[in-house]
Amino acid sequence: MADTGSGPGSPAPRKRADARRNQEILLEAAAAAFVASGVDAPVRDIAAKAGVGVGTIYRHFPTRADLVVAVYRHQVEACAEAGPALLADADSPHTALTRWIDLFVDFLVTKHGLAEALQSDDAAFATLHAYFLDRLVPVCAELLDAAARAGRIRSDIQALELMRAVGNLCIGAGKDPSYDARRMVGLLLAGLRLH
Amino acid sequence: MADTGSGPGSPAPRKRADARRNQEILLEAAAAAFVASGVDAPVRDIAAKAGVGVGTIYRHFPTRADLVVAVYRHQVEACAEAGPALLADADSPHTALTRWIDLFVDFLVTKHGLAEALQSDDAAFATLHAYFLDRLVPVCAELLDAAARAGRIRSDIQALELMRAVGNLCIGAGKDPSYDARRMVGLLLAGLRLH
DNA sequence: TTGCCATCCGGAACGTTGTTCCGTATCGTC
DNA sequence: GACGATACGGAACAACGTTCCGGATGGCAA
User: Fold this and answer.
1) Based on the domain organization, do B136 and B77 belong to the same domain?
2) For chain B, how many structural domains are there in total?
3) Contact A180 B189 (CB under 8 A)
4) Which residues form the HTH tetR-type domain (chains A, B) (predicted)?
5) Does A5 map to a domain?
6) Which end of chain A has less neighbouring CB within 10 Å, N or C?
């Protein structure tokens, strides 16, 4: 899945130099295009910006989602790793959960169209969907569980469901100044509390 | 906006018979296509199902949104009219608000892709956006206001913002059995309550 | 009834997307 | 220096929304 070169000893036959260079250039061009036009920037535009043919994109990133995942992998990792850290530092599991959701929302809101793509049933985004869920749902589940055990929130909500709801609420954020996704997510979390 | 023939005495020069017939056929075909494939069923498919050329669709419904609006106008009207009725009947404004949101959610959830289209920034859906907002936001505002005055919910939420949030939460409902939009909307409303 | 013209229809054609495919160029090695 | 594996470029294809215009057709006037 667009592996940038992980564990040694793997049977990876070491790619050609131009291939590695192009992959790097593509990642930068894609990142720039995503900032400028959102995650569904036309493939041709990204290719042009990178000075590369469209075929090259598809060889390195078989689906659009692979490209998106590769571009945002670092930030998703950071978000995933922040979960346990927050749980350890915050003065309550509920605070940790709130803070973590804030992190997630910030991430989504600052990436044009990412939230949309995340919910899209377009086959091209299946990998994206899978990656986010695999990486973040367990983290969310841990936080949710801790908060539930502390008796602060209802315990009948699944992490997957909560994350989808949060992701959905982030759709369209930044396009309309009168819609504040963060506030709406805050409301959702407030609805989760027992009182 | 796809007027089906409203007030008499209007300067409407009475359309030709075949035009009126085709408009009717088109509405039925579109309704069927929307049920089968969602509101973004290919225009060509709708035309074919209606036994009509694509040009005919665009003459009657200049944009995709006009077609969608025409198909669902009755139901949107019904939803809008239910607002004041609920406010009069229910034992509290808060109950009325909850019931009305339920109605709205039911409507969105049963129409494949409607919620998605509603948030899309695609220019083709601008009319749809405008119609829903014009028609439903005032109703929601009235309910919200009544509930706020009764002191049951926070008063710092705009109707527009709430409706967008609810609409967003309905995205993707029915595709994934593990995601229950109604439940999530319930959570959001719970977060609105003062306690 | 007939004829005429405004109105409306059908579908070809255009522009934009994602995606595939293959002849050609390049890299790395022997 | 030559050769095979690898990678590249961009033409080509398919699916979509949308526009456009030659031809058909409905309604009215004579």
Assistant:
1) yes
2) 2
3) no
4) 20-79
5) no
6) C
Residues A43 and A115 both lie in one domain: no
What's the CA gap between A81 and A13, in Å, rounded? 30
In Å, what is the separation between the CA of B113 and the C1' of C15? 26
Same domain flag for A121 and A46: no
Q: What is the CATH number of the domain that holds B48?
A: 1.10.10
Q: What is the tens place of the pLDDT at every residue in A66-99?
A: 999 999 999 999 999 999 999 999 999 999 999 9
Amino acid identity, residue B129?
H
Domain final position from B9, B35, B60:
B60
Give the Cα separation of B172 and B191 in Å (integer). Answer: 22
Cα A3 to Cα B166: distance, rounded to the nearest angstrom:
38
Residues with CB under 7 A from strand D: A 13, 15-16, 18-19, 22, 51-56, 58-60; B 16-18, 40-44, 54-55, 58, 62-64, 123-124
- The CATH number assigned to the domain holding A79 equals 1.10.357.10
- What confidence category does residue B156 fall into, taking pLDDT thresholds of 50, 70 and 90? very high
Nearest CA-CA partner of A99 in A184, A182, A194, A191: A182
Q: Residue A3 domain-assigned?
A: no
Nearest to B119 among A172, A178, A186 (CB): A172
Confidence category of residue A12, pLDDT binned at 50, 70, 90: low
The sign of the CA dihedral A104, A105, A106, A110 is positive
Distance CA A79, CA B83 (A): 42
Q: What is the DSSP string of A85-111?
A: HHHHHSSSHHHHHHHHHHHHHHHHHTS
Chain A residues touching B178 at Cβ < 8 A:
158, 160-161
The residue segments making up the domain with residue A40 are 17-60
Q: Using a 7 Å CB cutoff, list residues 5-24 of A near strand C.
A: 16-18
Same domain, B54 and B115: no
Q: What is the pLDDT of residues A14-68, one digit of tens each?
A: 889 999 999 999 999 999 999 999 999 999 999 999 999 999 999 999 999 999 9
- Residue B105 is encoded by which pair of tokens? 């959610």
Pick from B49, B54, B48, B60: nearest CA to B18: B60
